[in-house]
Amino acid sequence: MNIEKKINSLYRLGKEIHKIIYNQDEIIHQASKHNPWFVPEFVLKALYGISYLLDEEKLKEWISNYDLSSNSKKNIGIIMAGNIPLVGFHDLITVLLSSHRAIIKLSHNDDVLIPYLVNILRSIDPEIGDDIAFVDSLEKVDAVIATGSDNTARYFKYNYKNIRYVIRKNRTSCCIIDAQEQVQDLTCLSDDIFSYFGLGCRNISKIYIPDNYDIENLITHFNNYSWILKHTKYNNNYRYLLSTYSLENRSYFNADYFTLMESEDIVSPIACVYYEKYNDVKHLKLILERNISKVQCIVSREAWFEGSIPFGKAQLPEPWDYADNVDTMAFLGSL
Fold this sequence. Notes:
The chain is α/β, with parallel strands linked by helices and 335 residues long. Helix content is 40%, strand content 17%.
């Protein structure tokens, strides 16, 4: 199947996803029942993010940067994560557009939505179904793309040491505040922080603020996500943090549904956001260098900070925004 036809099929899938969102299809509630962390609000957000990826012109622009004409079809194992809805979908379309065959091992946390979208894609283009298979274990694959924790990454590297692989570890994202933010900026920042309960690698878990910045200013503008406290599992994490911090006599801000704590660490627990102060941009760059290998993306007001993206864009990556900043399309093209 030629690339143009695949792109058109994926574009048509995006149109079908728009219908799912508009009609609030039952699959949204099925996914929520299967995994309590996949609340309907966040399943809808994830579906919108996939439809955003499947823009025909963006897909063409993405593919135009690669020479895939000489690719011989390989079986590519994809070990998908399940921390947020549909997190493995980008790997799937990358494999398909690179003219390989996707052998998918789903996460048990997200084994409802991916097969559902694949079935729609197969109905749009039956030929593409020959290039997608779901398996319980990966055997006889030519390469592997795996996403997991730091611990599982060690296991993956050992298990697939005899073939080529892309193996991803834990990552998180951070935000740069410069005290010139408007209300809308901070509202968008709250999306970057609290979408998916903060469980994704593109969620902001660390905020860098100027020395003289009033951290409570953030609390004032984050109330639009106070509803997540009604979620039992999130609430349990929040209450546990409050108890732990009180017992340890630690200093923190209680924002009624999350906590803010000053820390040099970059990965915060659920229901907590870390912050750290900086003197100037030079100082900030030095601080970031400590943890840059753990950073997926950086957000700042209108992307003023070098290498950052605007507030509100963390959960809307472009097709060419690769997890762990590893160009998986180039990897697949080199096989």
